[in-house]
Specification:
With 326 residues, this protein is α/β, with parallel strands linked by helices. An eight-stranded mixed beta sheet has the order 1-2-4-3-5-6-7-8, sandwiched between helices. The protein is globular, with a radius of gyration of 21 Å. The relative contact order is 0.14.
Length: 326
């Protein structure tokens, strides 16, 4: 009798768990369907080494390639920055593999050298001759990996609030994103990540955009809701889990970077510190232009796109041998 009761109790628990999981899977699919219907891909697609890369390509002139940060996508550049950049350059922003509407090749690790290889292959396939690379936040880490391991592929390097060195202390707000198990990342991606992101997303954005409020149209025009897609969460969590495998080794080689380079850092950045991520780079990269914008935080391209565009153009003008912008 007792065994029968225990059996039915266990069966009831299993059914309840399956029902909860089923609910979250169903809700995630509903959210994703709405996101993809209201915010479809904005650009073109190209297959690179098993990755399907989504990108936007506008303008004419020497090429500048933009790499977004953790949990972001190409709209972090196209909407706030491309509109004010002005003529004379070809601007290409891509969703890094797995992020946004790009897909990551089967078996990919997400490690920095791997992403650098994909970006270089992307540039070669598009026929981009030694572009300037612009990397924001974790995209800056990928840009630095390109500058170190593929120096012949680029003409210049621009870092915006970039993650350049290993952070000693992980902020509590980001610990939930550190998921070392690929299986656990997959389960979270297809169950609770989208509903949780929908519920707490703006709270996270308030931290990332501090000391300024997030743009009112961030979740729609700037593509914030695209981050609710399971593949996007999985790629972001993977990037976060593996970045420290390569960043310490790469940071020891920054002195090898010889192309014109610049780093713009927000004086009020609440995410990464100038002492850890900014000043050491200035000491390692010969001729690096370090600009500290006291009025900006971690998302400078949204808060003051004109200042950011002017900074990028100045480094690009140096890289391509033009008269330097002021």
């Amino acid at each position: 009798m007792l065994l029968t009761v225990l059996f039915w109790l266990l069966a009831a628990i299993v059914v309840a768990c399956l029902a909860v999981v089923g609910y979250f899977v169903f809700r995630t699919r509903r959210i994703v369907a709405w996101v993809e219907r209201t915010m479809p891909p904005a650009g073109k697609f190209i297959d690179i080494k098993g990755n399907r890369i989504h990108y936007v390509d506008v303008g004419e002139g020497p090429p500048i390639v933009f790499l977004h940060g953790l949990g972001a996508q190409l709209h972090h550049f196209t909407h706030p920055l491309f509109k004010v950049f002005g003529p004379g350059y070809r601007l290409i922003a891509l969703d890094r593999p797995g992020s946004g509407y790009s897909t990551r090749a089967r078996g990919s690790t997400g490690r920095l050298p791997e992403q650098a290889d994909v970006v270089c292959a992307f540039m070669e396939t598009l026929g981009l001759e030694k572009p300037v690379i612009v990397g924001h936040s974790l995209g800056g880490s990928v840009a630095l990996a390109i500058a170190v391991e593929h120096p012949q592929a680029i003409s210049g390097l621009v870092l915006l609030a970039a993650l350049t060195h290993k952070e000693v202390d992980l902020r509590p707000e980001f610990k939930a994103l550190f998921v070392s198990s690929p299986l656990k990342r997959f389960i979270l991606a297809h169950t609770v990540s989208a509903p949780a992101g929908l519920k707490y997303g703006m709270k996270t954005m308030s931290l990332i955009f501090a000391p300024h409020p997030p743009p009112k149209n961030y979740m729609t025009e700037n593509g914030g809701y695209i981050g609710l897609r399971p593949s996007h969460y999985y790629a972001s969590a993977t990037d976060f889990a593996v970045i420290e495998m390569d960043l310490p080794r790469l940071s020891e080689r920054y002195s090898e970077i010889k192309v014109p380079s610049g780093l713009l850092f927000g004086g009020g950045d609440p995410i990464i510190s100038l002492e850890v991520q900014g000043a050491p780079v200035k000491e390692k990269i010969d001729g690096l232009e370090l600009k500290i914008a006291e009025n900006l935080g971690h998302m400078p391209q949204f808060i003051d796109p004109e200042q950011v565009a002017t900074f990028i153009r100045r480094i690009a003008d140096r890289a391509f041998g033009r008269s330097v912008s002021v």
